[in-house]
Amino acid sequence: MTAGTKIRNLMRLLDASDAPFWAIDPKGKLIYLSAATAKWLGIDGAHLLQRRAIAGSPLSNDPLDLLAATLSPPPGLDRRGTASLRVQPAGDANRRIAPIDVRFVRVGQGESGLTIAIGGQFSDRVADEELADAAAVRQQLDAWRKRHAGIATIATAGVSSSAKRLRARIQVASSVRTHIGLFGPTGCHSESIAMRIHQQSAPREAIAIVDGPLMDPELLDASIVPVVNQLASSPEAQATVLVRGLDEMPLDAQRHLVHLLLSHSGRLRLLGLGSDASCIDTNAISSTSTSNDANVSERAKPPVDAALADLLASLTVTIDPLSSRSEDIPLLAAAVVDARHAAGEGVGERLSRAALDALVIYPWPNNFEELDAAMRHAVRSATRDAIGPENFPLAIRSFRPGDVAQRRKVQSVSLDEMLESFELKMIHSALEASDGNRAAAARLLGITRSRLLRRIESVTSDPKHAQPTTTAKKPASPADREQT
């Protein structure tokens, strides 16, 4: 019997089984799916062949790539040779695919290795608790991707109340076409969330992206002229403008933006990105604008024009800082590791317990962008499948909880105030040493008498500082008094 005939006989036996069976080559691509697998998934198995079965975000928006990725084995398979996982394939709006338990077996090593998967009932126990943890996180991630495929950006993963609120708001924002404000701290992925909302709510609509802090009315016109031309060319046309740094946009540019939005009412939509949702609090804006207190500083004035705030007030999405979502960090970090490993950036594919502990206590000042960069660094620097604290950037692996309080203490000190205080002490000392003789004090300080007089006048005019005083040890001579 030839080898080809043997293979065909084996395939017929596998196709005759009611247990799903598939095989993955050394590069992570699906090379065989049994008839039971195709029936379970509800598609022709040939459509998945040569697609990557590697955990993490697929390399395209093709639903079949996402489906193939959910058929990948759990972490640690290369080292252990066998593992079980409850596989939860991603279906579509019209078809729900039931999850099943799958046993994965690694046959061979290195480039000649082959992974086979068999669906069934398995009750084996995992001796390595860390691998069990990694498999549990993987199942959580698969469930999240399956339920929230349309909004599956990294910021939406998690079990905290912040993550649940964020997912709910994004779902609402994705279901309607209206002006939307997205507010969050530095590195919060607000732009990627805004783009996902745009793709869900208006997939074929033109979009213009502008940097708010750089705008003036003329530059704003030039930046969005393509979408404005589309609106002018057809009364049915619709378009969106996404403004980064809306709360830093000059007021004249904001007012011009309002004019454009109202001129194309219902057809031109705004997605505004900012750092603090309080800037569109219309009550605060009203009370500030009507205040008669002449001492209200410019910094107390709202950074967003009242008319623009009214447009955004109907729907806002607030993104909480990563430091307030510590319970979500293991899942978020694992999602990034999955994506980086799937992209072939390194061998690291799971996080050790010590690594997770280090991630949870770190304050993440740059939020999701910093997390993404840290996990990219970890996957690349890891020399085995498990990522440890030693694979993280220096800022994370050397962080201690007390560092935050110390850093805040240093940041709360004004350098100008410290220098001014030191200068005041030096002037006091020089005046005391010279018995109040300002000319002599200026010589001690190495400056001119006129400069000393200007500094004394500047200090004494500031109510925060007391007037420099001297301790007279002896009456000044007539010559000294004449010099002063």
TrEMBL record:
It is an enzyme of class 1 (oxidoreductase). It comes from the Bacteria. Residues 458-484 are annotated as: Disordered. The keyword Iron does not apply. One of its GO terms (molecular function) is ATP binding. One of its GO terms (biological process) is regulation of DNA-templated transcription. The keyword Transcription applies. Signal peptide: none annotated. Transmembrane segments: none annotated. Keywords: ATP-binding, Nucleotide-binding, Oxidoreductase, Transcription, Transcription regulation. It holds the Pfam family AAA_lid_14. Its EC number is 1.14.14.51. Residues 6-54 form the PAS domain. InterPro entries: AAA_lid_NorR, Homeodomain-like_sf, HTH_Fis, P-loop_NTPase, PAS, Sigma_54_int. Residues 156-380 form the Sigma-54 factor interaction domain. PROSITE patterns: PAS, SIGMA54_INTERACT_4. This is Limonene hydroxylase. It comes from Novipirellula galeiformis. The lineage of its organism: Bacteria, Pseudomonadati, Planctomycetota, Planctomycetia, Pirellulales.
